[in-house]
Amino acid sequence: MNQNYDFKSVEAKWQNEWLKNRVFEVNEDTSKKKFYCLEMFPYPSGRIHMGHVRNYAIGDVIARYKRMKGFSVLHPMGWDAFGLPAENAAIKHGVHPAKWTYENIDHMKSQLIKLGLSYDWRREVTTCSPEYYRWNQWIFLKLYEKGLAYRKSSFVNWCPSCATVLANEQVIDGACWRCESQVEQKELEQWFLRITAYAEELLKDCDRLTGWPEKVLTMQRNWIGKSEGVEVDFPIDGMNEALRIFTTRPDTIFGVTFMCISPEHPLAERLCEDREALKRIRKLQREPEIKEGIFTGKYAINPLNGEKVPIWIANFVLIEYGTGAIMSVPAHDQRDFEFAVRYGLPIKVVIKPFEKDLPVPIKEAYEEEGVMVNSGAFSGLTSREGKKAVADYIEEKGLGKKTVNYRLRDWGISRQRYWGTPIPIIYCNHCGIVPVPEKDLPVILPENVSLTGKGESPLKYVDEFYRTKCPLCGGDARRETDTMDTFVDSSWYFVRYCSLHDEEAFHREKIKYWMPVDQYIGGIEHAVLHLLYARFFTKVLRDLGILPFDEPFERLLTQGMVCMESYRCLEHDWLFPKEVKDGRCIHCGKPVQTGRVEKMSKSKKNIVDPDEMIETYGTDTVRVFTLFAAPPEKDLEWSSQGVEGAHRFLKRVYALFYKHHGWLKNTSIDDSEARSLGVLSIGMTGESNILSLIHRTIKRVTLDIEKEYQFNTAIARLMEFVNEVYSYEPKTDEERKLFKFALKNFLLLLSPFAPHIAEELWHEIGEQGFILNEPWPSYDEELAKEQMIELVVQINGKVRSKIMIPQGLSDEDVVKIALDDEKVKQWIDGKEILKVIPVKGKLVNIVVKG
Ligand code: ANZ
Ligand code: ZN
């Protein structure tokens, strides 16, 4: 055995062995229960960053643990390989997006292999390959057949800087989610997927997703945004026409003082003569800060009280929501209130608070519940009763009907981009829109294009692609030149992993065995977009008879961010951590300013490069650090001391085994022998029994993993174990046997976290086969019981309390327990503590003033 922990050769050796022996390749094994562990696949941007490392390390621990627990584990990886950055790189550096993408994939794959991740690479999915995207196209055709894919002209969110359409979900506070430019409105013919057809089911099934974080479910529910209300027809004065509005507050209908319609409303042009004004309002749509309107000169009649109210066109009324028209009740809706104040429109109170009166005039809208007033026969009802009573009345009299509305919009998937899946549609002058016949799939993305990055899709200028023949009449026709939103690619990739490349994409048997994903792991930034689309596609594929279930992801873990403080020099701006030495800039020697701890980002240079870390400390250290520094769902603060600490721990593990390797190799012991020896209570120190120590450790580590994947505390248990046995010297044969038993089990527990060193030491102590194929150790409740000892607490030399505590706690924990003790508190409360001295985990001396 090598005396030093040579992590480089150890890690390279086992990565090689694993690949050579194809240990991560998995096939359907009906004798075992399956477990599908999936991490969100990365965009091949060029290099792995620490966020990836954390995401995949978490997944790898789960996969390895489940494997040892006897599951047949599917753990695949792939590339979300279409997208804008490849095109931007092409424009900037003159490389073809395909070349750029595939080179990045090569490099990143080698990085993932160096992380020791247990992927079955035979299943690698690359979304930009025709053999993958042909199925995007196939799904699109199926959606088209079912009327779930359709084309319409509409205003779209347009990012002028990316020169492309953005989905509503990709617009954050009016800005592009990628480049943060101000988003504009532009009218285009677009393809849409009818996700709204599944709105109710997507909402309802949120209740079933008990393995998802509540936060994510709330975001999904809000995004779908179901609201129940009524549609009411307001006749337009002097026209044979009614204005239909949607409201969730029929109880306020007697307070209507004006109406507002969207500038896109079909009646807008007929009601408003001033075309210029209308144009101006249109431009201001989706600018939540601004409230602009124009009076049409026309009036509507409130069907409940016959009052005539003016009709306005307002920028804040959305065409896609409800009916695109609203009844405005300024007294009870703040937005209407501000509009009324701005344009001097009347405000009429019809809901009074239960306890008090509203000021006259009111200073803001009263939006709470209350009692109806000035509301004819309905006055006196509570607003809650009124909602129902007025809605019933409206239905009875045929003035309107109760309806449900969803915030969710259909998903616009057309992108004026090159690097994406071609939409399999042909336009023929005679036959109109013609879907590409299934047998002609895939529609291959041509390689020879010139990219400008602006405006229309570059495919328009590739004649061989653009000009084609109509599959129906054989006449001249054109292909659709837009490509699909890349979120289509990631909406079903988890299904593709179930079968191998030379097999069909939707292999029923294999899908039935592997799906759904048991554990999905990824960033919270995908809480609405990706996860909602994937749920939608799952339901669509179910309805096509392909998937025999309703939801793709049983459990979801959203890991926290990897954060770090940033450094800035007056002279040299942001600095990488390695450009700072002793608080000074290494370039100019000026003191640096330290910024707050925040997500690692290139712009602030508060990043550490995984490759460098692996080079210096090894993969196992990087894994242990990221897993130990915080529970998976919490943010993690990168610290070089922390990395050093993780590295020291592994070195200590290595040294411990090195110290004993001489006899370990030739000593063997199994479970039952260990038990019979264990009752002899051979101890290290006389109080702790090594057999119960290892059982306790197995129990704690297992429970920590089982309960919410608390890997940080699990690793802490392993560290405690090493501390306890580090200086133990077994003397007799029996003591040696028991110690070997403990150490062997320790390695099993360590192996999901630090697989390389565990594998190495496993062989060094004379065990056969790969440790990763060993079963996870089990524990005995009786043996795992905590051994309690009495902790004595002295205050100023007098014994003041005796507390029973588990043995083997750290000094820090013991002090905490002592200070929290009720009896102790009585003696120290309000006094200044001068000193606290823990002694061997059994005694705490507290010295207080006075
Ligand atoms: C009258 C009223 C009185 C309203 C009141 C609210 C408060 P949710 O809950 O999100 O569904 N609304 C309806 N369609 C709209 C559109 N296309 N653009 C902008 N606003 C629209 O919101 C429903 C409420 O939002 C509706 O109820 C309507 O205003 C407004 F004291 O009608 B309410
Ligand atoms: Zn035709």
From TrEMBL:
* E.C. designation(s): 6.1.1.4
Keyword presence, Cell membrane? no
Kindly list the biological process annotations in GO that this record carries. Answer: leucyl-tRNA aminoacylation
Q: Where is this motif: 'KMSKS' region?
A: 599-603
Tell where it localizes.
Cytoplasm
Q: Where is this motif: 'HIGH' region?
A: 42-52
Enumerate the Pfam families for this protein.
Anticodon_1, tRNA-synt_1, tRNA-synt_1_2, tRNA-synt_1g
* Annotated binding of ATP, by residue: K602
Catalyzed reaction equations: tRNA(Leu) + L-leucine + ATP = L-leucyl-tRNA(Leu) + AMP + diphosphate
What broad class of enzyme is this? ligase
Q: Which InterPro entries match?
A: aa-tRNA-synth_I_CS, aa-tRNA-synth_Ia, Leu-tRNA-ligase, Leu_tRNA-synth_edit, M/V/L/I-tRNA-synth_anticd-bd, Methionyl/Leucyl_tRNA_Synth, Rossmann-like_a/b/a_fold, tRNAsynth_Ia_anticodon-bd
Q: Which residues form the Methionyl/Valyl/Leucyl/Isoleucyl-tRNA synthetase anticodon-binding domain?
A: 689-810
Domain Leucyl-tRNA synthetase editing: from-to ranges: 221-394
Question: PROSITE patterns annotated for this entry?
Answer: AA_TRNA_LIGASE_I
Can you provide one Gene Ontology molecular function annotated for this UniProt record? aminoacyl-tRNA deacylase activity
Annotated signal sequence range: none
Q: Its principal location?
A: cytoplasm
Aminoacyl-tRNA synthetase class Ia domain: from which residue to which, for each copy?
A: 408-564, 598-639
UniProt KW keywords: Aminoacyl-tRNA synthetase, ATP-binding, Cytoplasm, Ligase, Nucleotide-binding, Protein biosynthesis
- One Gene Ontology CC term in the entry: cytosol
- Chain ranges of the Methionyl/Leucyl tRNA synthetase domain: 41-183
Q: Mind telling me which HAMAP family this protein's record contains?
A: Leu_tRNA_synth_B
Stated family: Belongs to the class-I aminoacyl-tRNA synthetase family.
Indicate what this protein is called per its UniProt record: Leucine--tRNA ligase
Gene encoding the protein: leuS
